Amino acid sequence: MDSITIEWKIPETPSSSWLQCDSSIVSYNLTYWPRDDPTNSTTISVNSTEDIVVKTVNELDVCTEYEFSIVVVNSIDLAGPANMTSAMTDKIPPQPVDSADVTSDSYNHLEITWSEPFSQCGAPSYTVSRRLLLNDQCDDSMADTVTWEVTGDTSIEYDDLLPYSTYEFTVLATLEGYVAETVYVIAYNSTESVSTAPPEDFTVDNTVKGKLDYTWSSPPCGDRNGAVSYDYEFGEAGGDDVQRENLIVTSKSFEDLKHYMMYEFTVCPRTVVGPGPCIFIQTRTLPSEPTGPLNVESDLGSTNQTYTIIAWEKPELINGLFLRYEIQKDNDDVIMIVEEEERIYSFSDLEPNQEYAIKVRAVSSGGNGAWDSVDVTTLPIPEPNTPEVPVTTAKNDTSISIEWPLVDDTNLGIYRITNYTVRYSSATGDEDTIDVNYITSPMVCTIAPLEPGTEYYIKVRAVNEGGPGGWSESLTESTDQTFTTCPDHFLVPGVQIGLIVVVVVILLYAVAVTFLLIQLRRKGPIRTEENGQDPYMDLRPRSEADNIYQEIAITSTTSSQKPGERRLPSSDLFHKNQNVEQFANTTQDDAGYELVLTPN
């Protein structure tokens, strides 16, 4: 049994004639009946003064639609107009289909019959679906799921099935939108027979050492006959240890197999009746890699600064075919030798005094062998011998010339002597060097500029591409003195400069005096106040008896920045036409000079 709850609101503004004399709503009459049976009605009174009235009607039939009528009753027992509504009780889904039978009288005809499940709401309908699991005839149009609706019956027939195929059928009970909890599943093979052709597109992949991968496809369309799986056999050719298994896929892989071994593989399609024609193939796995190490060695007797030779032993190829040797020096490009008996190689582009890692491996049809390596160190460049002590061939106060015999470099091979270095120093100065790049016999070098009268220590050494050799014993030699009779203090630059300044001042002084005398002799006769000639300033030759001739000496009594005479301007002289005795005294002019007159 089931129930339905009805809810309604009180009328807001009753205006009908049944509400008279200020009567009020006191109750409601609720009448209900099945829609399919109006004569089977029931009326109940609902007393309520609430604005919203709720009433539940119980003991109703399930899966039934009911009509409801609500009438308002006032205080004088007058009933108002009815308000109608309807509702449906709950539906109960049908039970699932629990059994079915399949009947077929040909490869493409099939009838499915199932039992009707229990349902409280009447006979259910059914949804039947069909799905093609294994399409033997290569017709993809039937591969999708197809659905049929069955009403009023518990069976369905098919006459369009593909031959030698597998189908899956499902039956689902439904009732007006309600479905059963589960479906009933039926699997069916349209024909039971063996395949009439072997699998197609059979391939094997043996590119991975110790592994074989087989793939194939189903027999061709029309010969498959419902094949749903495959039987295979696998083992060594001619061996007794054979693996057997049934597969539902169309591929199979085998790993950890013996190298360079022949294996056999057979695969057959199987239907529900049995296996069909088989396909067979033989495949050999890849061979093994060559063995190692190769005992790579370096010929130390042949190794020099740029050259070395390596050799190695012949590897064991096991079951592979020789392809080549691979040689690599450090991270350089790989060198390949394709002759199996050629197991020696030389390098002629090495650097002196360098260590190299050289490795060798064999490569066969089975793959790459292991690397075997050897470390080789080239010889350093030989150092030149030490020269003999140089000897002095010439010298002066600023240079010393030396020579020395050539160093024998025949033992240096290609690294002959390229130049010599001369090093010289004094007790007070720093060391200096000179590179002598021109090779002569004997070697010569002039060291300049040097300090006069200084003792030097001179030595030489030979140089080649590898660097310098040892220094010779020192030659001790002194430059000549510049001033051999001068005291030592004359060698001091400050004293020399002072002497030069003194000499220059004396010379300038003499030139000034000479120039002044010449100017005085060139002057004309000196006039007296009476416009007569001044006998005392007449410089013409006179006799010794001429006592008025006087010698005039002008001496400066002031000093200047540099020694010398300044010419006294003639305008500064004060002349008086007087006897010479009157000028015995000293007079000072405006320029600061004294005028001394001395009788002859």
TrEMBL record:
UniProt KW tRNA processing keyword: no
Keyword Secreted tagged: no
Residue runs in coiled coils: none
A Pfam family: fn3
Keywords: Membrane, Transmembrane, Transmembrane helix
InterPro entries per the UniProt record, alphabetical: FN3_dom, FN3_sf, Ig-like_fold
Span of domain Fibronectin type-III: 1-95, 96-194, 198-289, 292-384, 386-482
Transmembrane segments: 497-518
Domain of life: Eukaryota
Designated name of the protein: Fibronectin type-III domain-containing protein
Organism (species): Strongylocentrotus purpuratus (Purple sea urchin)
Native organism taxonomy: Eukaryota, Metazoa, Echinodermata, Eleutherozoa, Echinozoa
